[in-house]
Structures are given as C-alpha cells and as structure tokens.
Amino acid sequence: MSRIDYSVWDHIEVSDDEDDTHPNIDTPSLFRWRHQARVDRMDEYQKKGEDMEKALNESRRKLSDAQKKTRELASSATDDAKAELTKAQAEEKKLKKEERELEKKFDDHQREEKKMPWNVDTLSKEGFSKSVVNAKPDPSEETEEEKEHKHKTFVEKYEKEIKHFGMMHRWDDSQKYLSDRSHLVCEETANYLVIMCIDLEVEEKHALMEQVAHQTIVMQFILELAKSLKVDPRGCFRQFFAKIKTADQQYQDAFNDELESFKGRVRGRAKIRIEKAMKEYEEEERQKRIGPGGLDPVEVYEALPEEMQKCFDDKNIEMLQEVISKMDPTEAKVHMKACIESGLWVPNSRTDDAEDKEEGKEEDGTYEELKSEVEKEKVDEKKE
Question: Is the whole-model pTM more than 0.70?
C-alpha cells in the first residue's frame, strides 16, 4: 500500500490568521505586523542578493580589463612593458581570487534562498492579468505650423536650461538635473540640441559640439525608450540612466555607435551649411560688382588677354591703346565692349584731382578714340 509523503509541507510558513491569539490582543493588527515584518525580511534578503550579483559583475568586468592589459603587455618587447607585465599579472591573480570568493558567496546566498520556507506571498504568482480601459482617441496630428510654433515657444521659455543640460558631463548630474526639470524631457529639447550641435561645428568649436552631441543622444535614447514602453518620456528617463550606469556592454556599445554616427551627420550638415553660406556670399559680392551692362568685371578681366590685363593692372591708357592697335579689330571691339558693360572701363570718366586735370583730359581724349571704335561697331551691326 503506497503512502503519501507529506514532508514537503514541513517547510511552509503557515498563514498568520491560523495562529491562536490571546483574546485581549488585537488579532488583525498582529497579523498585519507579522506580515509586514516578513515582507521586510524578504525585501532585505532580495536586495542583498542583487548587491552580490552587481559586485560579481563588476569584478568580472575588472578581471576582463586586467586580462586584456596583460595580453597587450605580453606582446610588447620593451623594458617598460616587461616591468608593467609583472604588476599586471599580480593584479590579474588578485582579481581572479576575488571573483571566486564573490561567486561562492553568491551561490551560498542562492542556496539559502531555496531553503527558505514558503509563505502566502511566495506560494503562487500571478500568471495573467489584463485590464481594459476605454482610451480617449488620439487628437489629430499637429500641422507643421503648429509644431514650429510649439518649438519656438518652448525654446524661448527654456533655452537657458536646455543649454545648461547640453554642457553636462556626468550621468548622475544629468539625471538629477532632469529630475528637477522634467519638462525638458521632450522632443523640443532634442531638436534644439541638434541645432546647437550644428551651430557649434560651423563655428569650429569641435570639443563643445562633441559634448552637446553626447547629451543629444541621451535625450534621443530616452525618447526612444518612451516610445517602446508607450509611456510619457518624463516617466521613464530614470530607467534609461539606471540601465546605462549598470555597465551593460551591449547597451553601452549601441549608445556609443549612435553617438559617433550622429557626430558624423553633424559634421556633414555643418559642411553643407558652410558651403551654402559661401556660395550665397560669393553671389552677393558678384551682384555688387555687376556693371551697367550686366557683366561681372572679374569674369571679364579674367577673359582678357594678358597684355590687356597688364594695362588695367598698371592703369596705363597709352599701353592699352597700343595693345588694341596691334590686336585684330573685331577681337579688340569685343573685349572693349565687355569692359564697358562690366564697368571695368567707365566712359566719360573725369578725374576729381585738380593737380591731374591736364592728365585727365589726355586720358579722355585717348578713351574717345577707343569709344569711337565701339560705337562704330554698333552702327555696323545695325546696318547688317
């Protein structure tokens, strides 16, 4: 005849309400006190285990770094490297011993946890739970004008605070700053930081750009986390900092990769903006130079033969007359017409200096000869 083994129930802490109590004792209060004390013990024990696990992970990380350093020094042949190698090997041995001790403590803790008696809080766990709430339909999407107005209003109000956040370095400082100013955890802050990065790169403040870029990716990661959790960003930014500070290598690598990629995009955008500004400036200067006939004097000058360029460089009209007399008449007329229409050569010019009055008359007479050639060309064109 088979017997049922009831020994499994020996390690169950019975419910508080099954104990007998004295009639003069407030039974409900006693039960609440007992239950709270048990919950506190469980929380303390769980926190102790989490601390042990965190210390073990940190020890493994340090050991990995020490082993990497040892390998690098072992591959080097310098005297300094050999001296450092002995120290590195000793440090590695010490860290291995520390890791074994932490692993033993953590395993003992887990074994003790399994031996703890069950109670009403650990006998069963919730397997499935669902709540259905009639949600208010999302409002229509904002137009571009509304988004622009919202961004402008937000920046005008909080620009100083956003800039301060962009200049921060440490995780803890950033978390505390956002905790005190949770209104900054939004899309508008991220957009402003992006613009700030491009402005700094254009101004060639590269180190500052890289610092603000780091804070920009911090805000972007918080916003992405909020989207994945479908919650308000202000309610989950602490989760981001908790995750990034636990030395999760995969998450840290993803953050660094996105940061480097973002800095590359900023440099590219800044380069485009600089090139555009230079083109606009050059076009503006060109428009200022345009002569009465719509030609650019710089372009006309560069198209002139070297002999004519030298005449304009020296401001020597006699030399110019001599050069033109030696040129093909048709070619000379084309060049002189372009000079007049670009303003490189100004017809009927007069010198304002009284001392050069006689020289001015001589130059005007010389120009009349050149001008008559151009006017004659115009008459010939009309006849044709």
Answer: no
Confidence (pLDDT) at 214: 93
CB–CB of 59/109 below 8 Å? no
Please answer whether residues 59 and 95 qualify as being in contact, where contact means their C-beta atoms are separated by less than 8 angstroms. yes
Cα–Cα distance between 208 and 263 in angstroms, integer? 12
Mean pLDDT confidence for 243-258: 81
Residue 185's identity, in one-letter code, is V
Bridge-partner residues for 12, per DSSP? 118
Going by C-alpha positions, the residue among 230, 233, 235 that lies closest to residue 222 is 233
- HSE (side-chain half, CA atoms, 13 Å) at 222: 27
- Beta strand ranges found along the chain (DSSP E): none
Distance from the Cα of residue 136 to its chain's centroid: 35
Q: How far apart are CA 285 and CA 276, in angstroms?
A: 14
User: In this structure, how many other beta carbons lie within 10 angstroms of the beta carbon of residue 317?
Assistant: 20
For 155, the enclosing helix (H) or strand (E) is helix 144-166
Cβ neighbours, 10 Å, residue 267: 15
DSSP state of 8: G
| Longest Cα separation, the chain | 143
Contact 326, 336 (CB under 8 A): no
Residue type, 119: N
Please state, in angstroms and rounded to a whole number, the distance separating the CA atoms of residues 322 and 308.
10
Residues 321, 370 contacting (CB under 8 angstroms):
yes
- For residue 282, the one-letter residue type is E
